[in-house]
Specification:
The protein is built from 18 helices and 15 strands. The protein is of the alpha/beta class and 462 residues long. The strands form 2 sheets. Strands 8-14-11-10-9-12-13-15 form an 8-stranded mixed sheet. It has a 7-stranded mixed sheet with strand order 3-4-2-5-6-1-7, sandwiched between helices. Helix 1 packs across helix 2 and helix 15 packs across helix 18.
Length: 462
């Protein structure tokens, strides 16, 4: 029989080296061998911390140990290296303080049960500096600043970090539907957190996957080599991720009270906007319609332009060919550049594509834009393109929703349209049926193209 003291020493030594073993010692009732998803999570977190990769994104359902594991990871990293500098970000100040207090309290925990192993048994050299009682910012002995907890709207002035840990920055569906709120979160992350990183930094983002434009989605887009761990509550084979945490019966009971979009995001890590987006698909072409001699079959080449109302808006000008009552997109000019740039560039594109008729919305300065484009065409020596400006009187959102089916069924894009016009593609692919859309310029102009085929109501030509 192995001496209990030897067994205890072995468990402590293993916890120093292995994060999963550390978690089992700190919270044995939760981190159990019959919960393999937690073992996988811990092993991959450790592998990431010991790798050269900068970013790890973990998407998991609620109540499966995301925050708890992030707290223990912070403690374990401090134990292994007391000079570590960690900054954590949470949904709000209350949650960031709670997270920070959990990290600190785990390090200073005293042993009242002689049979229980606490943090100081595993890492006796890692101690909170005397007098560092604040939960949100403190230092370890021998260090100036070790830990800072913050949240959107908070500050990180004067703190440098080698590890950033982000924990569930979205808590409500309304935020996932609000593109402006997602933009603010990303701006806070880049301006406040990312700006405080030091050489060799690493970022761990642990959250439920709410939207394609949430922090996890933007991080995956920004860092192409980011590592991704996705765990669904209901597995593809019909089994649960962990019956001990969430049974199939409880899962079905919970999702029955939710909309399909929220349930898919919460438990299956499917972004809410993929379910709620207006346009589900777009038609494409590899070549324009041609006759037997290779000549284009277009009856007309036209354009529709929605000028930028404010500095935050985009100008969207779509050039398309008409054939068999279908629109084949030839070019898209989608930009925030000022009018002194967009007026000559729009004219150049109209001339280059041989546009016969250019229609330009005259709302909010569009009339002056149209006249200047007309003048630019004259300077280029072109009299083939007729420029018309008009006032759009109908409700924008209603027009977009009403014409969405026609847009998907009868407007054709080049096969590589997402690469040619990425900002336009993003605006179209992410536009929501319900919720706040940061930009509607692309759907608005595309709807304008559809209306040239479907009806003339609501448009008065000046």
């Amino acid at each position: 029989m192995v001496d209990p003291r030897i067994r205890r020493a072995a468990r402590i030594e293993l916890a120093r080296r292995d994060f999963w073993s550390f978690c089992k010692l700190m919270a044995p009732d939760f981190y159990r061998e019959d919960r393999p998803y937690l073992k996988t999570l811990c092993r991959r977190l450790q592998a990431f911390c010991e790798s050269d990769r900068k970013v790890l994104v973990v998407n998991m359902p609620p109540r499966h140990g995301k925050s708890r594991t992030a707290v223990l990871l912070s403690q374990w990293l401090f134990g292994r290296d007391p000079s570590e500098q960690i900054m954590t970000g949470s949904y709000n100040e209350t949650l960031s303080t709670t997270f920070a207090r959990a990290v600190r309290d785990g390090i200073v925990e005293e042993r009242f049960d002689p049979n229980r192993i606490v943090f100081s048994d595993i890492f006796p050299q890692t101690r909170i500096k005397y007098g560092e009682a604040a939960a949100g910012k403190w230092a370890l002995e021998g260090q100036y600043a070790s830990y800072l907890a913050t949240s959107p709207g908070g500050t990180a002035t004067g703190f440098g970090a080698r590890k950033l840990i982000l924990d569930d920055l979205i808590k409500k569906a309304e935020e996932a539907f609000n593109e402006g709120a997602l933009d603010k979160q990303w701006q806070w992350f880049t301006d406040t957190m990312l700006s405080r990183t030091e050489t060799g930094y690493k970022i761990v983002i642990i959250m439920t996957r709410w939207a394609t434009g949430d922090l996890a989605g933007r991080a995956l887009e920004h860092w192409q080599d980011a590592e991704l761990i996705t765990m669904k509550a209901l597995q593809d084979d019909g089994t649960m991720l962990c019956d001990a945490v969430l049974t199939r019966e409880d899962y079905e009971d919970k999702v029955r009270t939710m909309s399909e979009e929220i349930a898919s995001a919460n438990y299956q890590q499917q972004p809410i906007d993929l379910k709620g987006r207006l346009y589900s698909s777009f038609k494409t072409y590899t070549d324009i319609p041609r006759d037997e001699h290779g000549n284009p079959l277009f009856t007309h080449i036209r354009s529709y332009t929605d000028t930028a109302d404010t500095g935050a808006d985009y100008l969207c000008s779509i050039i398309y060919g008409e054939y068999a009552h279908e629109a084949y997109v030839l070019d898209i000019y989608y930009t925030k550049d000022p009018m002194e740039v967009t007026e000559p560039e729009t004219a150049r594109r109209l001339l280059a594509h041989g546009v016969n008729l250019a229609k330009i919305e005259s709302n909010n300065g569009g009339r002056g834009f149209a006249r200047n484009v007309q003048e630019q065409l004259r300077r280029l020596g072109s009299n083939r393109c007729r420029v018309e400006w008009f006032h759009q009187s109908e409700n924008k959102v209603a027009r977009i929703l009403t014409n969405s089916t026609w847009v998907q069924d009868h407007i054709y894009y080049p096969a590589n349209w997402r690469d040619r016009w990425p900002e336009y593609a993003k605006a179209m692919l992410h536009y929501q049926k319900e919720g706040k859309n940061a930009h509607d310029d692309a759907p608005d102009a595309t709807t304008g193209v559809a209306e040239q085929f479907t009806r003339k109501g609501g448009v008065s030509v000046w």
